[in-house]
Amino acid sequence: MISSLDSQNDAYQAKMDKLEAQSISNTTGSSGNGVLSSGMSFPLTCNYYVSQHYGHNGHKGVDIAGANINGQPVYAAAGGTVISASYHSSWGNNVLIDHGNGVWTRYAHLSSIGVSAGQTVSQGQYIGKVGSTGNSSGPHLHFEVYVNKNRVNPEPYIGL
C-alpha cells in the first residue's frame, strides 16, 4: 500500500516538475551574468522559520513558514518588472519578477496577489500575501531565484 502511494506521489511530482519546466521555458525575460548590484532584501518582515531548504529532496526553492504567517504581506526582494502574476497548479497564486541581468524571483502559494504582469516594482514593495494555494500543505512562502531561467539556491540571496 505504501509502495503504491509512493509511486503515485513520484508520478504526480514528475508531472508537476514537467509543467513547471514548460512554464519557465515559455517565459521571456532578461539574461545576463546573474549579479544584482543592489542585492536582495528578505521578502517578509514577520517572524518565520525555514520549513524546507533548497535542494532537500529535490526542492527547488526555500519554504518560509511561521506560527502566524498566513496572510502576512510579501515584499519584492529587489526592484524589477513583474513577468507574471497568476495562478499555477503547482505554485498556486504566484508572482514572477525580472530584476534584470538574468535574475528572476518567484513568490508562490500566495493567498492574494497585489501586482499585475508588466508592472514595475521597487525593492520592498508589497506584492501579495502569504497563503497556501496550489500544491501546498499549509501556509508558507515558497521563494525561488532563477539565473538565466535556471533555478539556483535562493538562500544566499536573502541572507539565509
From TrEMBL:
What sequence ranges are listed for the domain M23ase beta-sheet core? 58-154
Annotated keywords = Signal
The cross-references to InterPro entries, in alphabetical order and at most eight, read: Cell_wall_metabolism_enzyme, Dup_hybrid_motif, M23ase_b-sheet_dom
Q: Which GO terms describe its molecular function?
A: metalloendopeptidase activity
Cited Pfam families? Peptidase_M23 (PF01551)
**This protein's record includes keyword S-adenosyl-L-methionine:** no
Name-wise, this protein is: Peptidase, M23/M37 family
Organism for this UniProt entry: human gut metagenome
